[in-house]
Amino acid sequence: MLRIGRIEYANCTPLFHALNALFPENDYRYVGGVPAYLNGMLASGGIDVCPSSSITFATHSDQYLIIPDISISSSGPVLSVLLFSKTPIEDLDGAQVLLSSESATSVNLLKILLRIRYNCQCTFQITDQSTPGAMGGNEAILLIGDAALRATMSRHDMFVYDLGELWYRWTGTPFVFALWLTTREVAGRRGDELMRLARQLGHAKQYAEEHLEEIVRVSPERDWMGPELLLDYWRNNISYDLTDLHLSGLKRYFRFAAEIGLIAPVRDLAFLPLD
Ligand SMILES: C=C(O[C@@H]1C=C(C(=O)O)C=C[C@H]1O)C(=O)O
């Protein structure tokens, strides 16, 4: 039985809903959590495969395999990866910035944007705080996932920067927040099951795109986001694609990350073979 990590954010709801609706016979075991937790579970062998922070691949590119044709990404605003700041981003030089403990990719994206794009040297502190109001004496806070969506719906008087949008305006390429990753070790033992899952994810992706209105009616996020905003988010912000253009954005992100010493240079992307 494959153990699959399930990110408990609104961005994943359509895909997992579709996977279960299309293939009810699957005996997958789901393990829910935030990305940072699931990244750790995949690394320690507690799960076999999951949508993982994309930078996870880069940290051990000899150990991980990418499931082809699927991601969590955006080409422009993503709506759920947001920097809330008391000052304009270009004035953050010397400031201390709080970083969501749930993230691995977006925290490094922010570091790249601050250093390379805005020429700001900041200090960073990881936090479990999930509202912009809780940043105390710090200058800014990075929130991801549902915490970011909730924060943007509440009242505040801060500058808000959408990291998907900043990246797209800067580079002209999509940003890949999450890749579906497995390990070479699991692929050696359960290659057939992973290939079947990869095929099912392809179908689920298409089904999700075609049934968003149905899915919104039964999704738990509808209660606090409202059906219109949730549909809009799925339709116009979140994408599950992983095209060549996405991969060029991903490689550019890895190059920037290596340039400022966040990771070692990544030579090649490695994919799960599909036959
Ligand atoms: C688009 C998002 O991207 C998420 C950001 C991640 C990260 O920063 O490590 C990991 C998985 C994604 O779900 C989001 O948070 O909504």
TrEMBL record:
<comment type="function">
    <text>Catalyzes the dehydration of chorismate into 3-[(1-carboxyvinyl)oxy]benzoate, a step in the biosynthesis of menaquinone (MK, vitamin K2).</text>
</comment>
<dbReference type="InterPro" id="IPR030868">
    <property type="entry name" value="MqnA"/>
</dbReference>
<keyword id="KW-0474">Menaquinone biosynthesis</keyword>
<dbReference type="GO" id="GO:0016836">
    <property type="term" value="F:hydro-lyase activity"/>
</dbReference>
<keyword id="KW-0456">Lyase</keyword>
<comment type="similarity">
    <text>Belongs to the MqnA/MqnD family. MqnA subfamily.</text>
</comment>
<dbReference type="Pfam" id="PF02621">
    <property type="entry name" value="VitK2_biosynth"/>
</dbReference>
<dbReference type="GO" id="GO:0009234">
    <property type="term" value="P:menaquinone biosynthetic process"/>
</dbReference>
<protein>
    <recommendedName>
        <fullName>Chorismate dehydratase</fullName>
        <ecNumber>4.2.1.151</ecNumber>
    </recommendedName>
</protein>
<comment type="pathway">
    <text>Quinol/quinone metabolism; menaquinone biosynthesis.</text>
</comment>
<dbReference type="InterPro" id="IPR003773">
    <property type="entry name" value="Menaquinone_biosynth"/>
</dbReference>
